[in-house]
Amino acid sequence: MKKNEKIAIFLLIFAAFVIVAAGLEFVDQWKPDLIIPGPSVTRTARLSDYFPKLKGEYCDTTIYFLESGEPGGTVMVLGGTHPNEPSSLLSAVLLIENAVVTQGRIIVIPQANLSGFSHNDPQEASPRKIHFETAGGGVRVFRYGSRATNPIHQWPDPDIYINQFGQSLSGSETRNLNRGYPGDPEGNYTEQICYGIMEVIRQEASDLSIDLHEASPEYPVINAIVAHERAIDLASIAVLDLQMEDLDYSLEISPPSFRGLTHREWGDYSDTLAILMETANASQGRIRGKTDEALVLTGKDKMYVKAAELGRLYVPYDENGHPIEERVGRHLTATKMLVENMNMLWPEQAVVYHGVPDYYELMEQGYGNYLLPSL
Ligand SMILES: [Zn+2]
């Protein structure tokens, strides 16, 4: 055999190895995350139970019902609208696995855009998975996904996305779940997911619906509660209560002209009180340095410390970063404040629960401590 033939065979074998290895990683990204029903989960449903057209589709995400059996209201919590904002999924998971509901019920959709968890954005160099050791043993793993629906499920993007209100957005926003509300049963894949979630809110008559997010530290709406105008009283009192706990939040009223977002369309197209919340996530920011699992979990980044020194950020930032415990703790404590204030304002629709760690408990004990063991 000639030398160049040997080299060619070697290169072919090497290429085959790379293709198989990349393919296995690709398939691995499609495997579902383990979420363990906690003490109050009475049943689960799928999005297609509310919008049958989604049956058999990858996006047909699981809905968890935490029901007390006692009369009261309904609160819905949505995680994973943007799967590259991990505190949203991780907060929803702690509710599912820990909450003990004694009045009313909580509906949790931890992975609202499940399609977005099936890929991530190669040029962002994001880690594919994040890991936590649990107190009871074993390691729990969650996917770190993309901001948007997988192009395998929705392709191609138009040059300009014109939403249902005739507003023009950049083409990739056509796959952004938080631009497609109130959804359209005949619309694109993402708009159909929006329609399914809208149907959950309407058919279950959710009294208070909370959409959990994270944002880049350089983004102005951060450590924030954004409220539909019917929810503004509720959100105002919650922000004051949070300040008493040393948790600063800015309060934003949902802009009436910015269409397609949860805090606008959930409130306009159902009777629910609509809220969106943001925490600070350096791993999705534009001026971050090395992007790895440690950055996702600790939020420590020298570039952001520098940016803060230069006064360029909308959130305090020092060498302590913004760990995942802080971000999940903020979401869970603010959710509790909102629910307790709803109970005060409208006692007939009260939802009472306990067992979920707050900001200070998470900061002390760590996130993994509150996950159920995978053994
Ligand atoms: Zn988001």
Describe this structure in words.
- The termini are far apart.
- A hairpin with a 5-residue loop joins strand 8 (about 160) and strand 9 (about 170).
- The radius of gyration is 21 Å and the shape is globular.
- The strands form 4 sheets. Strands 1-2-5-3-10-13-11-12 form an 8-stranded mixed beta sheet, with helices on both faces.
- The chain contains 10 helices and 14 strands.
- The chain has 2 domains: about 1-30; about 35-370, Aminopeptidase.
- With about 375 residues, it is α/β, with parallel strands linked by helices.
- The structure holds zinc ion.
- The site of zinc ion has 4 residues, from loops.
- Zinc ion binds near residues 81, 82 and 213.
- CATH-defined fold name of the largest domain: Aminopeptidase
Bound molecules: zinc ion
| Contiguous uncertain segments of 5+ residues | none
Number of helices: 10
The end-to-end distance, rounded to whole angstroms, is 53 Å
CATH architecture of the largest domain: 3-Layer(aba) Sandwich
User: How is the main sheet built?
Assistant: 8 strands, mixed
